[in-house]
Amino acid sequence: MKQNKKMVDAITSRDADFAQWYTDLCLKAELMDYSDVKGFIIYRPYGYAIWEGIQQDLDRRLKATGHQNVYMPLVIPESLFQKEKDHVEGFAPETAIVTTTGVEDLAERLIIRPTSETLFCTHYQKVVNSYRDLPKMYNQWCSVVRWEKTTRPFLRGKEFLWQEGHTVHASEAEARKETLDILDIYRDLGKDLLAIPFVTGKKTEKEKFAGAVDTYSIEALMHDGQALQSGTTHYFGQEFAKAFDIKFQDENNQQQLAYQTSWGVSTRLIGAVIMVHGDDEGLVLPPYVAPTQVVIIPIQSQKIEVQQATQKIFDELKAAGFRVSVDDSNKSPGWKFAEYEMKGVPVRIEVGPRDLEQGHVTLVTRYNREKHQINLDEITQKMPDILKNMHDALYQKALEFVENNTYQAKTYDEFKAYIKKGGYVAMSISGEEAELMIKKDTTATARVLPFDQTLITELCPVTHKVATQTVWFARAY
Amino acid sequence: MKQNKKMVDAITSRDADFAQWYTDLCLKAELMDYSDVKGFIIYRPYGYAIWEGIQQDLDRRLKATGHQNVYMPLVIPESLFQKEKDHVEGFAPETAIVTTTGVEDLAERLIIRPTSETLFCTHYQKVVNSYRDLPKMYNQWCSVVRWEKTTRPFLRGKEFLWQEGHTVHASEAEARKETLDILDIYRDLGKDLLAIPFVTGKKTEKEKFAGAVDTYSIEALMHDGQALQSGTTHYFGQEFAKAFDIKFQDENNQQQLAYQTSWGVSTRLIGAVIMVHGDDEGLVLPPYVAPTQVVIIPIQSQKIEVQQATQKIFDELKAAGFRVSVDDSNKSPGWKFAEYEMKGVPVRIEVGPRDLEQGHVTLVTRYNREKHQINLDEITQKMPDILKNMHDALYQKALEFVENNTYQAKTYDEFKAYIKKGGYVAMSISGEEAELMIKKDTTATARVLPFDQTLITELCPVTHKVATQTVWFARAY
């Protein structure tokens, strides 16, 4: 009964308290639970299944473009970690360090990987000898640990799950192309799987990754108007190659330093899905990433015709490749409706005796909660379109939300007013000095330099110096 | 050229030095490399792809039987780890402990999971309330850390990759059934995917898992006559449930302690595949787990008819779902033959102009190195049978090896002579006293109590007391 009660309680409304709504939803949709160590969460089956859906889709895209999976050690010797100066400065304050086995202290302290550039570089130094060995395009799926102070489920944890790609190339052009190709793959993952229109662009110098020449990012806009950096790709130039001595013999038998990239997306994408699509009834999952796409709920399941129709619909949908389940537990239909709405299952099919007499069932699409009567024999045939239309509608809605919440500011007052409303504000600034003032005054941060760098104003509205770059700002997670 | 040289060097012969042969093969087949921290290895793309093949196959079997994937934290608070007495005694000497972030020491030391019983139990305590919540059958894919002193690639590492299943049930019968069902799934994985005939049975009291009531094991027999424990399943009874207070309300509203199991296989399976099937030319991969099933090598690839035939064969095999690749690099055919034999690719197709004139190509099966001429138009159609016959032959060969190297001992002298030859020796013993003497005298350990417990002798040949159990012994990794 404890279970029943928990589900029937409504969650906090999004507009009343977005942060509380988010936490309520994570727990009540049974995506995660807290562990005994702050910042380390438990991915429950439903939450982990969403991650598996993301993994499968992205892994397929990466393999199709020539990337190979590997697995590097969990730990990095402290001396190795310190080899690339900028990199270690960026990560040193937030590492977990193994110092002992309990029986004896270690000769050298071992850092649990916060990211694995140093491990990949050490390996690449050994296996890259000739231009014939290039490119090397490796990826790994693993967890990493960063000792964050403030943590929130999926968004920022001391441990999180991710993929980290690390590639080595013979030329700058090829490495730069890889950095942008992966950005495209991430954007496509958003569009095709998560129904999220990511804004893409380059990070400012201030916001780029520790050790990178250039960092690119995919950014999603949450329902509360804050941005969420959802993935990054980095062009390293030859900086890591210098620090780790990654050289190859070119076609003219000359020794050359290699060019590198790295890139990653994490379980933070689950947070993005929640905050872009969710509503006051709970999670709304885009159909292609949903662990269960269709749930069938028999009404008056003691009736034989209801049981038979339920089984028939289930068998047909399953045979056609849809992820489908039946809930024939003895909970009330109303309780089940609320539960699967909380869990964001895209399609609910209610199989009741009265509908069946007319040869149809009731189909409810989660995202707009619309009810349709649908002929029993047409369910499977119509399902691809139902899911596709739902996916497209979710994407379109999210896209319109971005468009309706993106502004251009020509004065600093305008900028401040827009930032207060929430969303992206584009402004042309003089550089880091302006960026720092904006952060101090408004807490907004530079999200990306859009690829179209047309200037909005000649002078920077903040510093009144010459504007050199157009930046999209937002408050961000 | 460095690369070329490395591959052409032969590896140590199996019979000359099995341990060296193994290490040579792991490195030269590019399965792994050493990292800067002893006992932590790098899984290179080819080695990791074998693990991915195992994961996919087993994950499918587990999901088909109602198991769900989750992800638990990497770290366990020291106090939590110590909650189940037997369990902590078994693992305490071999843990890696996080004590500091570099900036400040942790209030409580965190143990990197050597296994996750304590984490699963803590979670189950929270989510199991009623018999309606049972069973819970969770699994996770992750890496674990155990501070082993002696390490060998894939066989024993400070870190290894595995899956760990943890289940909770309402009755002893159901939990015991799960323990044996998973043992069957592991045995089937061996038979269907790895072409390894695992010997299965129960572990002796001495060899069982820390905290288990009963442990079962799958054991593989290596080419050198030593056994390799390749996976285990544990029935926990209510011991962990007591320690962690995992209770549920039964159908009569009574509070009951739950029954639990856990089970796992690891990247050690890769070691088993190497040591069961490999030969002096290198790795021999069973076809269904091989990352590349067919490699096509064009001979005189400048000739247009060779290029066209190569492309045609590749396209057809790929369209039919086989894992196929082409090596049209400018290395010599002989070098390529040696390389793909080292890597254990099941089928090599040589596409040469002279063969093509006759309308056929040369197909070489790795495991027996037999050459066949095969009609160009029949390759794809015949490939399923070629792979199936190869798989069956590998399994049959390994099965005969087990049968030919399994003995029964009626005296301790017989036992010692058989153990010296290598393989399994079945003997009926009085109990742990005999087990300890045998280990001391011969280094052989109890592998399993076979399910058929017919006694071979009435008295134990070692202690001359009444024999109570028949045990299969072997020297083991």
Description:
2 copies of one chain form a homodimer. In chain A, 37% of the residues lie in helices and 26% in strands. With 477 residues, chain A is an alpha+beta fold. Chain A folds into 3 domains: 2-277, 2-Layer Sandwich (BirA Bifunctional Protein, domain 2), CATH 3.30.930; 294-386, Anticodon-binding domain (Rossmann fold, 3-Layer(aba) Sandwich), CATH 3.40.50.800; 406-474, C-terminal domain of ProRS (Translation Initiation Factor IF3, 2-Layer Sandwich), CATH 3.30.110. A 7-stranded mixed β-sheet of chain A has the order 3-7-8-14-11-10-9, with helices on both faces. A 5-stranded mixed β-sheet of chain A has the order 16-15-17-18-19, with helices on both faces. Chain A has a 4-stranded mixed β-sheet with strand order 20-21-23-22. In chain A, α3 crosses α7. At the A-B interface, β2, α3, β3, β5 and β6 of A face β2, α3, β3, β5 and β6 of B. β5 (97-100) of chain A pairs antiparallel with β5 (97-100) of chain B.
How does CATH name the architecture of the largest domain in chain A?
Answer: 2-Layer Sandwich
Distance between the termini of chain A: 37 Å
Kindly identify the CATH topology of the largest domain in chain A. BirA Bifunctional Protein, domain 2
Tell me the structural class of chain A.
Answer: alpha+beta
Shape by Cα distribution of chain A: globular
